[in-house]
Amino acid sequence: MARRRHTPEQIVRKLREADRLLGEGAEIADVARRLEVSEATFHRWRNQYGGLKADDVKRLKELEAENARLKRIVADKELEIDALRENQPGKMVSPPQRRRAVRLLCERLGVSQRRACEIVGQHRSTQRYEPAEQDPDRDLRAELRDFAENRPRWGYRRAHAVLVRDGWAVNRKKVQRLWREEGLRVPPKRRKRQRTGDSDADAGLLKAEHPDHVWALDYQFDATAAGRRIKILHVLDEFTRESLADLVDHSIDADATVACLDKIASARGRHPEFIRCDNGPELTAAALRDWCEFTSTKTSYIDPGSPWQNPWVESYGARMRDELLAIEQFDSLLEAQVLVADWQTDYNTYRPHSALGMLTPAEYADQWAKNNPKKLS
User: Around 349, how many Cα atoms within 13 Å sit in the side-chain half-sphere?
Assistant: First the structure.
């Protein structure tokens, strides 16, 4: 069984599911297997989180985050000081090298000259001494720094070739040495891991056949007048084209997404058979996977880079962008929430939909319910 880390919200959610299963007569071993944890982990969870409520878990999570932040700050500062104390003295053997190191610490870390001299091991009188002889490679160093700033993805080999072409009489090894002394380098490229979810149905073949058959999920972003990011979660019924939710907040994680889906299911009295979505981090997280398993909802993830496989919610987001987000300026998050809610109501109850025979989504849903009463039971 692959190990994974659980957030406090996920643990509380799994303990609630465990209580339901135990109330139905299930054995602890079967419950632990259903939750994908060992029995020892299950008992430890119950001892640690069994009596907590949602507010307690939220406060515990905030305290853990604050503790981790403080530990990280202390560790980073100690790491910087220890690295300078232990590694640099063996490399900075001359006063000019130590003088450059002190200036670097003052500029980049904002420490005082006294403190920087203590870390580097340079006497302050030596630091303040201005030598009469200038660095013979001063102009070449300045040229290399300008080159690295203008061409951040080029290395010292190309820098040497350009210098020779421009008339500099310098060999490659000297350029390499000065390049390293100035701390110039090509930052490595980070490979982004492609994360995809496990689908129960092919997104290209799945088609909604009745209300609550397929719910489509997607996110889009905007910003307030002050520049703060706004994130919007769209949940759409693909059969009726109804907007089931437009959650607006500065940040929406997997737990907030699950809470939104629970609220919709509670209001409609049923869960969807499928959810269709892309492979975003919130939608491939363990929290949403657990929710699908506990509610017997199947997943249909679209292929990476294929938004056309999720067309209805993409079209809905484009309509909101064109008719609201592109023409309105939000002064606050509250204003964005109110205007998005008003637009959602107008879309569901007033705006004719061409794919529904010019009926509104709400009218189409009511008409279908009247003509198919047995399918709703």
Answer: 6
Tokens representing 150 are: 């203008």
**CA torsion angle 157 162 164 169 (round to 10):** -80
Indicate the pTM of the whole model.
0.54
How many CA atoms lie within 13 Å of 15's alpha carbon, on the beta-carbon side?
Answer: 22
Q: Strand pairing partners for 219?
A: 233
Please name every residue paired with 235 in a beta bridge, in sequence order, or none if there are none. Answer: 217, 245
Map tokens 């889009």 to a residue. Answer: 220
CA 357 to CA 133: how far, in whole Å?
86
CATH superfamily to which 214-376 belongs: Ribonuclease H-like superfamily/Ribonuclease H (3.30.420.10)
CA dist 230 → 235, 244, 362 (Å) = 17, 19, 27
Which DSSP string corresponds to 161-187?
A: HHHHHTT----HHHHHHHHHHTT--PP
DSSP designation for 134:
P
* 86 φψ region: left (φ > 0), alpha (ψ -120 to 50), beta (else): alpha
- CA 210 to chain CA centroid, nearest Å: 34
Q: How many CB atoms lie within 10 A of CB 149?
A: 9
Nearest CA-CA partner of 368 in 215, 238, 207, 240 = 240
Residue 300 in 3-state DSSP? strand
pLDDT digit string (tens) for the chain, length 377 residues: 456 778 777 888 888 888 888 888 888 888 888 888 888 888 888 887 776 555 666 666 777 777 777 777 766 566 456 545 543 444 555 777 788 888 877 887 777 888 788 877 888 888 887 766 677 888 899 999 998 888 887 888 888 988 998 899 999 999 999 998 888 877 776 666 555 666 666 656 788 889 999 999 999 999 999 999 999 999 999 999 999 999 999 999 999 999 999 999 999 999 999 999 988 888 888 888 899 999 999 988 888 888 888 889 999 999 999 989 998 999 999 999 999 999 999 999 988 888 888 888 999 999 998 988 766 55
Q: Which two tokens stand for residue 50?
A: 């069994």
* Matching residue, tokens 């503790």: 67
Q: Left (φ > 0), alpha (ψ -120 to 50) or beta: where does 212 sit?
A: left
